[in-house]
């Protein structure tokens, strides 16, 4: 029976009422339980040779003398005892010797397969150094070469061969109590296009960050790739390709398969499991979100996560630009799922700010696609997600002319096409604004609309620059400029953890707005002085706890949270529920 008093720690709650409203901490992964002794078990107590090969419990040379006796490890390890900190130091030294980022990626994935706690300890303690390895840009190259570097499966593969049997296949996954699923169909991996089954690197990388940055337990995470074929001819001819060798299924066959998947997930894991869609193509992403958003706990990071991160940057930038969101004009280059998702959330924020319909707020926002400025004269030929942005204006064919005509405060690139913010475009922005806001958000680095160096040089050091992938600091006119990175990692780990923490049933746009405001509030005067509009990643766990608490508070307010009673201090509760990777003591 659940306690009726409010609780601020998982230790104060019954075992069936922990995070997610029913997911027990069977491996002792919560921060609140880290001082307790645990039993390393699978279906029986894990010991000896098997213990060393169980990545959940393996501690390498950190096993104590007593543990080596009790768990039959004598002779299976060298005599030395090395602390987790010493192991971390040795591994970071080893990683830094690799010159090729992909080699670092492979080494980290191999570590994750043999010692999960050490992997997450490395990632948490060295987040700024390792984030570009486990996520963009290196993860993009890893997906492209996934067939060649494939060692052993890290997630669940659901191909058309499993049609009619998806529920049965889900039960093959060893963990039963899943809180977060990240799923892709591999059709639009970053800015790299259709990588088919090799897109698995994205769900694996995202969930590693859910754990490292957001505190979700690794045992509660499930990466899934849905393989319905690929239209990438190069992959279809590649002898090392690991997926179905057929063209992509579309239409009824595709959506019936997704229907079966979503039904099976709910049946197997319950209605409070979060399903995050990742790197689906535009034509499917919007439809899936609209179709399942009212029935399931679903979240599209490309549409909603990117939007929340960018909105946070815009809100923070107001300290440097002055005024409110409604006082500024925004021009997007790229009108896909990211561009229209960001635009819609900005419009929602403006509408709440000025207490006006969202249709009125959209008038501050303009989009340019491959055919030029989106205007009302083009409305009949536009895709559905572009039509709300077709404003009255004469046709404009290219980005430079659009900048001159619209005179935006902020130029936001979501095109997936590199080097499209040319010298002339940036100079035009600088001539219109004292501090032009340039957001080159496309990933990976090669697809960025411009580099940090170009933005600062072409604006004569006046630009506030933000990118999707990391760029190093730039010195211009003896002033060191630190580029901000509008990385989705700021939002989705804390956002998802907040949903799981309160047992939310649905995602609401007001939660996204709350997450954006929580992130913007973490930017300090010290950061603004360096031209930054996002806080440094070094504080990401603290940031995620605040975002989780804010999202959970909004869920309780909206009546979609099921974990009752509501904890009195949600930040403290979030911190106590976070996964901690420190080695545990074994009985």
Automatic annotation (TrEMBL):
<feature type="binding site">
    <location>
        <position position="302"/>
    </location>
    <ligand>
        <name>a divalent metal cation</name>
    </ligand>
</feature>
<keyword id="KW-0520">NAD</keyword>
<keyword id="KW-0560">Oxidoreductase</keyword>
<dbReference type="GO" id="GO:0004473">
    <property type="term" value="F:malate dehydrogenase (decarboxylating) (NADP+) activity"/>
</dbReference>
<dbReference type="InterPro" id="IPR001891">
    <property type="entry name" value="Malic_OxRdtase"/>
</dbReference>
<dbReference type="InterPro" id="IPR012301">
    <property type="entry name" value="Malic_N_dom"/>
</dbReference>
<dbReference type="InterPro" id="IPR036291">
    <property type="entry name" value="NAD(P)-bd_dom_sf"/>
</dbReference>
<protein>
    <recommendedName>
        <fullName>Malic enzyme</fullName>
    </recommendedName>
</protein>
<feature type="domain" description="Malic enzyme N-terminal">
    <location>
        <begin position="112"/>
        <end position="293"/>
    </location>
</feature>
<comment type="function">
    <text>The chloroplastic ME isoform decarboxylates malate shuttled from neighboring mesophyll cells. The CO(2) released is then refixed by ribulose-bisphosphate carboxylase. This pathway eliminates the photorespiratory loss of CO(2) that occurs in most plants.</text>
</comment>
<feature type="binding site">
    <location>
        <position position="487"/>
    </location>
    <ligand>
        <name>(S)-malate</name>
    </ligand>
</feature>
<dbReference type="InterPro" id="IPR012302">
    <property type="entry name" value="Malic_NAD-bd"/>
</dbReference>
<feature type="active site" description="Proton donor">
    <location>
        <position position="135"/>
    </location>
</feature>
<dbReference type="GO" id="GO:0046872">
    <property type="term" value="F:metal ion binding"/>
</dbReference>
<keyword id="KW-0521">NADP</keyword>
<comment type="similarity">
    <text>Belongs to the malic enzymes family.</text>
</comment>
<feature type="binding site">
    <location>
        <position position="188"/>
    </location>
    <ligand>
        <name>(S)-malate</name>
    </ligand>
</feature>
<feature type="active site" description="Proton acceptor">
    <location>
        <position position="206"/>
    </location>
</feature>
<dbReference type="InterPro" id="IPR015884">
    <property type="entry name" value="Malic_enzyme_CS"/>
</dbReference>
<dbReference type="GO" id="GO:0051287">
    <property type="term" value="F:NAD binding"/>
</dbReference>
<feature type="binding site">
    <location>
        <position position="278"/>
    </location>
    <ligand>
        <name>a divalent metal cation</name>
    </ligand>
</feature>
<dbReference type="Pfam" id="PF03949">
    <property type="entry name" value="Malic_M"/>
</dbReference>
<dbReference type="InterPro" id="IPR046346">
    <property type="entry name" value="Aminoacid_DH-like_N_sf"/>
</dbReference>
<feature type="region of interest" description="Disordered">
    <location>
        <begin position="1"/>
        <end position="25"/>
    </location>
</feature>
<dbReference type="InterPro" id="IPR037062">
    <property type="entry name" value="Malic_N_dom_sf"/>
</dbReference>
<keyword id="KW-0479">Metal-binding</keyword>
<dbReference type="GO" id="GO:0009507">
    <property type="term" value="C:chloroplast"/>
</dbReference>
<dbReference type="Pfam" id="PF00390">
    <property type="entry name" value="malic"/>
</dbReference>
<feature type="domain" description="Malic enzyme NAD-binding">
    <location>
        <begin position="303"/>
        <end position="556"/>
    </location>
</feature>
<feature type="binding site">
    <location>
        <position position="443"/>
    </location>
    <ligand>
        <name>(S)-malate</name>
    </ligand>
</feature>
<dbReference type="GO" id="GO:0006108">
    <property type="term" value="P:malate metabolic process"/>
</dbReference>
<feature type="binding site">
    <location>
        <position position="279"/>
    </location>
    <ligand>
        <name>a divalent metal cation</name>
    </ligand>
</feature>
């Amino acid at each position: 029976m659940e306690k009726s008093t409010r609780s601020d720690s998982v230790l104060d709650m019954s075992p069936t009422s922990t995070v997610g409203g029913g997911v027990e901490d069977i491996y002792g992964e919560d921060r609140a339980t880290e001082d307790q002794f645990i039993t390393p078990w699978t279906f029986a107590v894990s010991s000896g040779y098997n213990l060393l090969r169980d990545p959940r419990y393996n501690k390498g040379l950190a096993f104590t003398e007593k543990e080596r006796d009790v768990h039959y490890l004598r002779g299976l390890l060298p005599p030395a005892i090395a602390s987790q900190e010493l192991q971390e130091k040795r591994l970071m030294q080893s990683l830094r010797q690799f010159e090729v980022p992909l080699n670092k990626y492979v080494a980290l994935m191999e570590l994750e397969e043999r010692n999960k706690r050490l992997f997450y300890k490395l990632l948490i303690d060295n987040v700024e150094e390792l984030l570009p390895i486990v996520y963009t840009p290196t993860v993009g190259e890893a997906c492209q070469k996934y067939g060649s570097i494939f060692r052993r499966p890290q997630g669940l593969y659901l191909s058309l061969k499993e049609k009619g049997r998806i529920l049965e296949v889900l039960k093959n996954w060893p963990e039963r109590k899943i809180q977060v699923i990240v799923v892709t169909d591999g059709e639009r991996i970053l800015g790299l296009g259709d990588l088919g089954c090799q897109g698995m690197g994205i769900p694996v990388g995202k969930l590693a960050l859910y754990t490292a940055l957001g505190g979700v337990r690794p045992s509660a995470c499930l990466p899934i790739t849905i393989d319905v074929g690929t239209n990438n001819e190069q992959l279809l001819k590649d002898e090392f390709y690991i997926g179905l060798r057929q063209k992509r299924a579309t239409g009824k066959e595709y959506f019936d398969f997704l229907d079966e998947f979503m039904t099976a997930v709910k049946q197997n894991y319950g209605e409070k499991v979060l399903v995050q869609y990742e790197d689906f193509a535009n034509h499917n992403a919007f439809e899936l979100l609209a179709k399942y958003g009212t029935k399931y706990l679903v979240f599209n990071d490309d549409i909603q996560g990117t939007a929340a991160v960018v909105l946070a940057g815009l809100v923070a930038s107001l300290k440097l630009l002055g005024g409110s969101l409604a006082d500024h004009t925004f021009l997007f280059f790229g009108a896909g799922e990211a561009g229209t998702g960001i635009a819609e959330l900005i419009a929602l924020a403006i509408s709440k700010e000025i207490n006006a319909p969202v249709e009125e707020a959209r008038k501050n926002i303009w989009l340019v696609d491959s055919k030029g400025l989106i205007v009302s004269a083009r409305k009949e030929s536009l895709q559905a997600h572009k039509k709300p942005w077709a404003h009255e204006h004469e046709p404009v064919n290219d980005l430079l002319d659009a900048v001159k005509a619209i005179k935006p405060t902020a130029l936001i690139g979501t095109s997936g096409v590199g080097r499209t913010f040319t010298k002339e475009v940036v100079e035009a922005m600088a001539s219109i604004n004292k501090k032009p806001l340039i957001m080159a958000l496309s990933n990976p680095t090669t697809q960025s609309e411009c580099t940090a160096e170009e933005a600062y040089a072409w604006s004569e050091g006046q630009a506030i620059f933000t990118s999707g992938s990391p760029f190093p600091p730039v010195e211009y006119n003896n002033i060191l400029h630190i580029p901000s990175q509008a990385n989705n990692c700021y939002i989705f780990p804390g956002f998802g953890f907040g949903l799981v923490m309160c047992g939310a049933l649905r995602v609401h746009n007001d939660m996204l707005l709350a997450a954006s405001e929580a992130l913007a509030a973490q930017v300090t005067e010290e950061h603004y002085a360096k031209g930054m509009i996002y806080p440094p990643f070094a504080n990401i766990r603290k940031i995620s706890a605040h975002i989780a608490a804010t999202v959970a508070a909004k869920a309780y307010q909206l009546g979609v949270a099921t974990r009752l009673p509501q904890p009195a201090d949600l930040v403290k509760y979030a911190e106590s529920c976070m996964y901690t990777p420190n080695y545990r003591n074994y009985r």
